[in-house]
Amino acid sequence: MALFVFEDELNRMINLKLYGSYAYKELSYIFDGDHVAMKSVAAKLRKRADELQEKAEHMMSYLNTRGGMFVATKITKPPSLDSTQLSIENTITYVSTLEEVTNKSVLKLYNSAVNDPELQGFLQDNCLHNHVAYMKELRDLMTNVKRVGEGLGQFLIDKKYFSQ
């Protein structure tokens, strides 16, 4: 029996963050490879993987503080993206889906925790604000990627946007 009422839901979120970190890390090394060679994209993806890992660890600490216990689940391999057809646009679509699933999970837990203002505050401060900002960044980037197109456009996006 869980001491902390929302232990299972928080564990699910932690495992989602770890899965996201794993997926971003895989993508970062694909973009870093010589067959794609977009070093700035790779660095940005790796940075996001590290952020998700840190957030998962922060949530684990919070779970322990509240009397819960972290339970790891098997992290499944993300669906393979065909590196020959890999583009910034496909990658943004893929990671946007990951972020939307995670955001829905956070919102569900937030809405369930009506009688737990501390948990709601934790989720608001550590998840919701960051997700909203990051998802806006992804939408803006997608608009620009579509605007410039494939080939040279992707090269310019890699150099201009991702090198910041």
From TrEMBL:
What EC number(s) has UniProt assigned to this enzyme?
1.16.3.1
Q: What is this protein called?
A: Ferritin
Enzyme class at the top of the EC tree: oxidoreductase
Gene3D superfamilies assigned = 1.20.1260.10
InterPro entries, alphabetized? Ferritin (IPR001519), Ferritin-like (IPR012347), Ferritin-like_diiron (IPR009040), Ferritin-like_SF (IPR009078), Ferritin_DPS_dom (IPR008331)
> This protein's superkingdom?
Eukaryota
Pfam families per record: Ferritin
Family, similarity comment: Belongs to the ferritin family.
| Keywords, ordered alphabetically | Coiled coil, Iron, Iron storage, Metal-binding, Oxidoreductase
Does Coiled coil count among this protein's keywords?
yes
Please indicate if the UniProt record lists Metal-binding as a keyword.
yes
Recorded source organism is: Clavelina lepadiformis
All copies of the Ferritin-like diiron domain together span 1-149
Coiled-coil region(s)? 35-62
Q: Which reaction does it catalyse?
A: 4 Fe(2+) + O2 + 4 H(+) = 4 Fe(3+) + 2 H2O
Q: What does this protein do?
A: Stores iron in a soluble, non-toxic, readily available form. Important for iron homeostasis. Iron is taken up in the ferrous form and deposited as ferric hydroxides after oxidation.
